[in-house]
């Protein structure tokens, strides 16, 4: 039976490290990479007896911002719960999370033309990190524990099973990343572990409504890996079912090296974690006026910004997506256009040249090119010098003597010299070989030290050769 006879059904659980200065329940820095292993910890995140957690207000605010951006209903009353399980990277023997009263429920996210329902958004603490690989000091049989990451604020966004392809799962995760960056809750860099996408995958016969047995995919560290892992798991489940077997509900890891999923452990249910209310933290009351203020203060969201960039700046869909997914690049485009540069030219230059200039200097540089004071090659040289020195592009042009020669009389003299020096190229052109103009223009450029306005020179050269 072909793969097309089966329908994949995919729900997503996405964990996002929040961009707060300190951890979720203590004053330790949330920058867990800045210190040596276990150098950024305290009695609270080490889970030592007798210490009490204090909730991070900034983390709560960021979760609410994300929730209202996802059109969720924010709870007026919420609480924290203990999720009990044993693992070496969990020093307390439980994780402070949320269970039956999450911060938000019932939102949605538009992914392409499909609306994906959001089940819940809740707040918890991250775990530590296990290092399994051996090195010069430790054998391959040893596992090391670094608790610098333990206690970092973590937001979890859970979707309904509304996705039906590996590509859709990837696009959903990318759309979430762009949204989180836009509202300023996280950098959401997947390769740095700031965003972790876990897919719940099942398959069913086309036309059926009942859900199949699902597996949860973990150990995924890029959007490309997410797509590959989901695609592989869909094919694996279809093969199992077509051979008369049964899919087992379990957690499966993704091996990037082997391009396959593998069994990690049986899938736990909620009762396995023995959730109960966190006794050391009071319930939270989220004032409706405060929530409304955060909703009204939201910036322009990615889907709306992409649409605006296409209509206002005449960008293609792919270029609009490139800018929207990078807030710094997007800001540079908008501010450079506001400084007087043409939108399409600005967008192309930013994509190609990745300038580090401020918007005023970049707008000045692009005007110099547009006005034919310098050509594009000279523009790149001016950009490099302006970035290194901090000088305005116009000052750089004058200092380096890069202004284009557009004077027709001066260029005509150079063209006569080139024609006299390259009779074969002239003969080739007159014989119908249009590419010969390139060699002659190259000679004009060389004789003028790269300062010739090649647009003007090309016109003059063709006129002269046609005589």
TrEMBL record:
It is an enzyme of class 6 (ligase). GO terms for biological process: glutaminyl-tRNAGln biosynthesis via transamidation; translation. This is Aspartyl/glutamyl-tRNA(Asn/Gln) amidotransferase subunit B. One of its GO terms (molecular function) is glutaminyl-tRNA synthase (glutamine-hydrolyzing) activity. It comes from the Bacteria. It holds the Pfam family GatB_N. Keywords: ATP-binding, Ligase, Nucleotide-binding, Protein biosynthesis. The keyword ATP-binding applies. It comes from Candidatus Dormiibacter inghamiae. Heterotrimer of A, B and C subunits.
